[in-house]
Recover the amino acids of this structure.
């Protein structure tokens, strides 16, 4: 119910025909720029803190600029940057790259907005990169760069990636330079040879192997090379499409489909460790740069972040809602006749349709069975049939995301009071004291909005019982691969488990886990584990859910409340191709993730004990 900031969005376009072709066919030299705008605007959900674009003009004469970049801050950044460049023929180029930013580090300002640019007087050594990523071994990359004598200006994974890849691009340029000299070439002929023979795949093979984390890295060079590479665990998403006019890359499949009027089957997903590249002549290659380390595609993409207009994501979200029907039925005592079903706007809407569909199927099966039984006894009258069919599953829009209240104008209790009114209810949507209310959301993370707003306003309708449904499992662990989740102590599931340990005199569990996390500092990366799982091990999911209810229920609220969570098995059944579940299970796919969660628990313990 609390919006999660999350991974960024990327978009790339490489025109594969001469610019005049697009003027003649589409009536504009800005065909590529216009398509980039659509790709970025349709991924606006992925980044509302800033946006940037870069363009390569490959036919620029010496003395003319050939590499252009524009960036802006704020939720209106896309409109701002495109309004500046739409009539600027400098941006009538052959190669475009766009980025939408959501900070996962807390750092802000225009200097942190992608794309990042590294300049050089040699066109082939100019590098511009952007990415949807978060590295979990930034310190190791920093040490590697400094050991080579570099002096990174900012301790940031993006700046370090720019310097690392820039260094390898320099080495690749020098390799080709020496090759040209051995062939007897001199002066301008050497430069032209270098630009013609740079292989960006060599840069990727020497830059990427030491990285730990989830990423899709994109880049362009001044000489017209282009690349996009996905992490070997397949954590972050990347899709591409090619025909004889364009090569397109984006973070989400449906934006490519919509922008270019394609069927889903025409858009391909970049595999773990794969890169798609294009050289200055537009020759496209799909290459295995890194050995795949399994499929750990992020399941939160399917539940929450990605556009629900994707064919598979839409069906998966419906399945997440539908397969919760048996557990919800248990929670309401099977009394569907006196239950109203609803959802928390807006990302839970598709799961709500799936839940409603499941209850309708269940209702129809009961009606069919009842009618069949009655028919064995006597010939049914129209009134009897009507009476059976009259029992319907009741879905209502109970909760409304009313307005974005400007709580910054208030302080203390006043601010808290304003925040409690972000949501409103539809009065009369259920029968007071008679109807149960089942309301589904995509996730319950901190629980703050539940306690301060949602439960309070739902209680005004006086339901007989409130059943809160989460279409995903309990969120227990932070993400370190690009989603800006809460810190560990903010998770309501974690706080509930800690509270249960204290209630039952099991504080020694916390101490054991703390010591196990400290011991992980001495473990080789490939042998790292996640001891924090031990905090949850003594309890069932139901026990933790019950404790959550006691912690979240507002003071004075008498309506019974129950929380129903998706199971891990249910998640994997609904999203079979996206098994990455570390925020629920604690099974981090990389050594860096395990190290980070251990350090987070160590900080939690040391800060808690020092108070």
């Amino acid at each position: 119910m609390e919006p999660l900031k999350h991974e960024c969005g990327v978009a790339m376009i490489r025109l594969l025909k001469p610019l005049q072709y697009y003027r003649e066919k589409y009536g504009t030299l800005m065909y590529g720029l216009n398509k980039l705008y659509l790709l970025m605007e349709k991924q606006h959900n992925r980044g509302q803190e800033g946006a940037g674009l870069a363009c390569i003009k490959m036919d620029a004469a010496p003395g003319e600029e050939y590499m252009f970049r524009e960036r802006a801050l704020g939720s209106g950044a896309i409109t701002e940057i495109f309004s500046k460049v739409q009539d600027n023929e400098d941006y009538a180029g052959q190669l475009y790259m766009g980025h939408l930013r959501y900070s996962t580090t807390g750092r802000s300002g225009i200097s942190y907005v992608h794309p990042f640019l590294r300049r050089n007087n040699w066109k082939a050594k100019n590098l511009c990169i952007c990415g949807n990523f978060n590295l979990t071994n930034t310190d190791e990359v920093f040490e590697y760069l400094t050991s080579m004598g570099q002096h990174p200006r900012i301790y940031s994974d993006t700046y370090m990636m720019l310097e690392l890849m820039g260094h390898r691009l320099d080495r690749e340029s020098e390799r080709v330079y020496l090759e040209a000299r051995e062939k007897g070439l001199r002066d301008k002929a050497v430069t032209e040879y270098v630009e013609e023979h740079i292989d960006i795949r060599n840069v990727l093979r020497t830059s990427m192997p030491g990285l730990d984390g989830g990423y899709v890295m994109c880049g362009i060079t001044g000489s017209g090379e282009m690349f996009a590479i996905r992490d070997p665990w397949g954590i972050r998403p990347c899709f591409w499409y090619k025909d004889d006019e364009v090569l397109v890359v984006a973070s989400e499949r449906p934006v490519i489909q919509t922008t270019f009027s394609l069927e889903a089957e025409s858009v391909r997903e970049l595999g773990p460790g794969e890169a798609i590249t294009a050289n200055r002549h537009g020759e496209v290659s799909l290459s295995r740069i890194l050995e795949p380390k399994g499929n750990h595609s992020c399941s939160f993409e399917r539940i929450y972040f990605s556009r629900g207009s994707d064919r598979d994501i839409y069906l998966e979200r419906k399945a997440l809602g539908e397969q919760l029907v048996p557990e919800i039925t248990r929670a309401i005592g099977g009394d569907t006749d006196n239950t109203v079903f609803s959802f928390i706007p807006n990302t839970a809407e598709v799961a709500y349709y799936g839940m409603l569909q499941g209850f309708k199927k269940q209702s129809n099966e009961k009606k069919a069975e009842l009618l069949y039984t009655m028919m064995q006894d006597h010939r049914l009258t129209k009134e009897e049939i009507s009476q059976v069919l009259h029992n319907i599953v009741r879905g209502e829009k109970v909760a409304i995301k009313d307005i974005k209240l400007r709580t910054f104008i208030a302080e203390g209790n006043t601010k808290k009071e304003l925040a409690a009114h972000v949501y409103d209810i539809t009065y009369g949507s259920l029968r007071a004291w008679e109807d149960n209310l089942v309301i589904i959301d995509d996730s319950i993370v901190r629980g703050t909005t539940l306690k301060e707003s949602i439960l309070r306003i739902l209680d005004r309708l006086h339901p007989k019982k409130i059943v809160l449904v989460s279409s995903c499992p309990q969120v227990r662990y932070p993400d370190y691969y690009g989603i800006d989740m809460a810190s560990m102590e903010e998770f309501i599931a974690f706080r509930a488990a800690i509270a249960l340990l204290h209630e039952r005199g099991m504080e020694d569990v916390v101490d054991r886990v703390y010591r196990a996390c400290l011991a992980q500092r001495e473990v080789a990366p490939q042998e790292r584990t996640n001891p924090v799982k031990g905090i949850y091990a003594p309890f069932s999911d139901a026990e933790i859910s019950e404790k959550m209810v006691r912690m979240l229920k507002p003071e004075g609220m008498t309506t019974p409340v129950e929380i129903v969570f998706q199971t891990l098995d249910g998640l994997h059944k609904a999203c079979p191709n996206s098994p990455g579940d570390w925020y629920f299970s604690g099974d981090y796919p990389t050594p860096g993730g395990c190290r980070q969660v251990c350090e987070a628990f160590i900080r939690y313990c040391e800060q808690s004990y020092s108070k």
About this structure: The chain has two domains: 9-295, 301-610. Residues 340 and 394 are 5 Å apart (CA to CA). The first helix runs from residue 19 to 26.
